[in-house]
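Contributing: when you submit paired examples, paste them exactly as shown. First protein:
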Amino acid sequence: MVSFEMNDRKKIGLGLTGFGIFFSFLGIVLLFDKGLIAMGNILFFSGVAITIGLKSTLQFFMKRQNFKGTVAFGAGFFFVIIGWPVIGMLMEAYGFVVLFSGFWPTIAVFVQKIPILGWFFQQPSIRAFFDRYGGRRVPV
């Protein structure tokens, strides 16, 4: 049996990850503000590293099957830092989809259990989409 105990380190990591997503979203809403997007990226990456551990994070990003996603995400972060946030966010989005495509089935089940969003994601057309593409990696 797997234990999902939430110690303080995981709580801090999830908080940093959440703030990272929030700052990235805020940077996009505020017309691709590169400072907010860069801060969101740093918080997101550090939150993931704290949540699952540095060794596991490095192993995840350095897997052979995740190499394209890692390079795209890193290049996107670089473009955000040098002042091209639109190109950077497009590259990061591609890298994010490639990196985390193996988690989509888990995310789909989680989202379907959220009270208001769950109703939307349980509609037949949306469920058919998740059933169709749920267990596959995104082809690159």
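Second protein:
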Amino acid sequence: MRALPRLAVRPFANRTSRATCQRLLARRTYANIAAHKFGQPLHETHPHLLKPGELSPGITAVEYHERRARLAKSLPRGGIAVLPSSEIKTRSGAVFYEFHQQPDFFYLTGFTEPEALAVIAREESELGYSFHLFVRPKDNHAEVWDGARSGIDAAKDVFNADESHDINRVASILPDLLQGSEVVYTDVLKPHRSQSSLSKLLGHGSTPTDGSLQSLLKAGNVKPLKPVMNQLRLTKSAAEVANMRKAGKLSGRSFTDAMRKSYKLEKDLWTDLGYGFRSRGLDGEAYVPVVAGGTNGLSIHYVRNDDALHDGQLVLVDAGGEYGGYITDITRTWPVNGKFSSAQKDLYNMVLNVQRSCVSMCREDASTTLDGLHRIATNGLQDGLRSLGFDISGNAMDVLFPHHVGHHIGLDVHDAPGFSRSEWLKEGQCITMEPGIYVPDDEKWPSHFRGMAIRIEDSICVTKENPLVLTTEAVKEVDDIEALRGGGSV
């Protein structure tokens, strides 16, 4: 297996003292931690999932500390950041959707429970910051129904908060924490429809209540936190890249296994992929996948996945697994019957050549941007389409290639949302490359290509000189795809 690329040294990585590391890795209250119940896995309770020192798979308590320290250093003197967790979303009645933690909150805390609030203030101290964590208290009755909670003590003793508090006391405690802060960085003032207890405590809604965070911040100097977090999350640590590489490798194997099989229904292919992700050790699907047979692939985000698959069609599959919160993003297109027709092969190889060319430029020394790579992809696809007999005058490319060629990935499928695609790509950033061609069933286009949808996507870590493709185990060469169904080995 190829060694991980050398990544830039993270700020604070060499400044964390031995004493600080020991404090962060210690369990300070629980004499027998494995006998207690917590709201998420710990090494002591789930050693098959986490290694010693890790708060979440692959990420140690020390790294979470370094992230908080980097955030604090990014704030001005007197700055403070306020981050709420995600909330449980109801599907209907008492039935709820699977919980997914708010990525910025998770990035800084490693805490995966709902109804929590992190307050991180810059301070001139050894750590460089103070960390307050509001969480749900232990509640025997509630835990009988909804599972264990970590509780207030664990917020300090496990998750290394300097001070921990009952989330129900936000309104009485938070004003004192904000007092004296010159500027507050937060995104909680965005419109929010939830009516959960955390939402009400934060004052979401049209009429903020007295003592709510919204009312507290109304007269203060408030700035959005998202731009600061984008900068912090954009460059991945070696541990983050390792998580994404594991997600990419195991997801890729699931794709390749799916290509070996013959399916009659989109939902059966979808089921096999999801099972493949989990059975190989991933946490599950990173997002609702696209499993699109034939002309269904002309819809970029087709997710019904309820149609039949027919001989002679292509099937376009955009899916990926998740590990420790980190995702992978893969798209492959292959023939339902395992054998490309002549026209399918011509269009597929054209898209593949463009994709390979773009992937090769995902390195810092190429001095390019995502927008620059999009222009390269567009020009390459235009030339390829011309050679195949397409008329690409007018708005043809807007129809045939309607989306951008790539985006950042990490804890989110579209990581660092709002970050400009015109910024230079740097070592340690992780992105996708996904050129595609979508040919409507229209007389304007050559008849033998009509109705075809082909997209090829890999997840990539940008390095100094040689891109690290995280998803190589999902085969994409025509000969390799056809060999899978023909009994050959890849």
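If you have annotations for the second protein, write them as plain sentences, like these:
Residues 238-259 form the longest helix (22 residues).
The chain is about 30% helix and 15% strand.
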